[in-house]
Amino acid sequence: MKLRLNLLFYIAAIFQTLCVSALLQSNDIQQYKDEHGIIHVTEELYKKLKYGVEGEYSVLYITIYSTNEDGNYRCPMCIEFEETIHGVQNIIKKQRPDIPISYYIVDAYEVPSLIKDMGIENVPHLVVYPPINMGKQETEPFSWSNGQFYQYELTPDHSGDVLHFGDFLAQVLNIYIEVEEDFDKGKFIQYFVGSTIFFVILKKIIWPIVKKGNVSKMAMILLAFSIMLPSLTGYKFTEMNRIPFIARNDEGNIMYFSGGTGWQFGIEVFTVSLMYTGMGILFIGLIFLKSDFIQERINEKMDSLLTLLFGYALFYLFSYYIGCFSVKSPGYAYSY
């Protein structure tokens, strides 16, 4: 019985050694990288690489390069996203060269065994494997087909979006990178022409009607306010950084304020802006209340009452604002 146990232990040790020895080191794969630092996996190379590289992140991109009868790529999105990968790869290489990461590209038609092993049905397909720790290898060796990974949800809208993919990869790597987007001339012309047409109509058509007294000036004030509010609140920042307008917590309730002061939800931008607007109106109201124009039209009791109401409302709104800020910055020293 003891001999059988020793034999089983010996066999398990040999198997564990084979599992560990299958892991490659970073230096082992340098010869396979092209001028961009990317490894194009072949069927033969897949047998060597599929067990991973110790201590490195692995970005595996599965695509197709085949063309149709017209000479066009069957998957234009695949080719476009490969350029996006190159862009993010260069950014990480320049800003965080200390990150151990390798990039692999597989043509689905050239490496059918990988497609079969991973059970992939659609391309393009991108996954990121976290670093492998040789000391923590289990009895079953790691491989691309059974290892844990992070999958990137690739859509046609994001195939050329360096910022979107860069954000995903930065979160996986737990790093911060800066992505500089190219100036979009088409979008600039779209906004410029649209804004110009809008303001020309506002000045040449709507304003003359207002001057004649056919439209309430209060309506025009509200219109101007509705234009200024989204323009000056920083809402465009949330759009550019793809921050959600509304988020919900685990209980399904709306989160009006995000944790931390680094960013804001879209609805938070408008909520805070309305607080500032309300406090500004109340403050100006207190000043205007003491003007000769108002003092000549109200008695002393009404003056005192309005001053108390405006002052209390301003104090309450500011106190509420501080309370909201304490949600974003717990332990804020100047709260009360």
TrEMBL record:
The keyword Transmembrane applies. Residues 1-22 form the signal peptide. Keywords: Membrane, Signal, Transferase, Transmembrane, Transmembrane helix. It comes from the Eukaryota. GO terms for molecular function: transferase activity. It is a multi-pass membrane protein. GO terms for biological process: protein N-linked glycosylation via asparagine. SUPFAM superfamilies: Thioredoxin-like (SSF52833). It is found in: Endoplasmic reticulum membrane. InterPro entries: OligosaccharylTrfase_OST3/OST6, Thioredoxin-like_sf. GO terms for cellular component: oligosaccharyltransferase complex. The keyword Kinase does not apply. This is Similar to Saccharomyces cerevisiae YML019W OST6 Subunit of the oligosaccharyltransferase complex of the ER lumen. It comes from Maudiozyma saulgeensis.
